[in-house]
Automatic annotation (TrEMBL):
<feature type="domain" description="HipA-like C-terminal">
    <location>
        <begin position="26"/>
        <end position="244"/>
    </location>
</feature>
<dbReference type="GO" id="GO:0004674">
    <property type="term" value="F:protein serine/threonine kinase activity"/>
</dbReference>
<dbReference type="InterPro" id="IPR052028">
    <property type="entry name" value="HipA_Ser/Thr_kinase"/>
</dbReference>
<dbReference type="Pfam" id="PF07804">
    <property type="entry name" value="HipA_C"/>
</dbReference>
<keyword id="KW-0808">Transferase</keyword>
<keyword id="KW-0418">Kinase</keyword>
<dbReference type="InterPro" id="IPR012893">
    <property type="entry name" value="HipA-like_C"/>
</dbReference>
<dbReference type="GO" id="GO:0005829">
    <property type="term" value="C:cytosol"/>
</dbReference>
<protein>
    <submittedName>
        <fullName>HipA domain-containing protein</fullName>
    </submittedName>
</protein>
<comment type="similarity">
    <text>Belongs to the HipA Ser/Thr kinase family.</text>
</comment>
Amino acid sequence: MQVPTLELDQEKLNKLAEITVNERLALTGVQPKLSLSLAGEKGNKRLTLVGLWGDYILKPQSSEFPFMPEVEDLTMHLAELFRIETADHALIRTSTGELAYITKRFDRKNGKKIHVEDLCQLSELLTEQKYKSSYERVGKIIKKYTTNSGLDVIKYFRLVLFSFLTGNNDMHLKNFSLVHTDKGILFSPVYDLLNVNLIYPKDQEDLALTLGGRKRKIKRSDFDQFAMSLGIAEQVRDNIYKDFSVRSDQIQDWINKSFLNGENKDQYFKIIIKKMHQIGF
């Protein structure tokens, strides 16, 4: 299978991303993003800019935070290692050789929009209030609206635990969504996963929302109480902990295979080890 070409260099991407952010298009968030579609004949595909309605989102390199595409791609691969369903994603090179992160939108199919609501909308809060909640409150909303709530709260618990372990203290309300499907309302594939402690080490909070009333000094007992608030049985919770412990043996291999440089690979792994020790893994 031939990789689609991206006929844009980093300079053009930077300018286009600035325009996209300045126009306040419906791709919210701090990291510059561009909407793309796949066009061309079989065997000669190319990614082209299409405004809002593309099937793909492209995130170029950031001048402020280097290696963001590489960090996001690695974190998404680690999520898959921990049996968390992710949006399709990859790294792709620009025409001048820089790596950019690309992901397929799960709220688009064959040019049509699929009904997706994020937890900011479901909490009836404005985008600027996306940090004004708790993981327990999000759990209650997921239980209230999802068709298979017993399974989806387990998916949600695994995601919050994984985000903590990978230094992601930016999992706010906009980063959780429910998707309307022919099987009912389901917890969506995950997206926008970053090791923020690596990219922005000044921010030392453990979490974006509160857990047990806190964002710092999170302990294993906080996750125990969290599981209880979601209605997850102790045996199921303990099996999740065991599963995470077993799968953690493969983390270093995935980090070593990533496109990060040596120093960032080491630092990424150290952050995970520190977080695992923090909650007694």
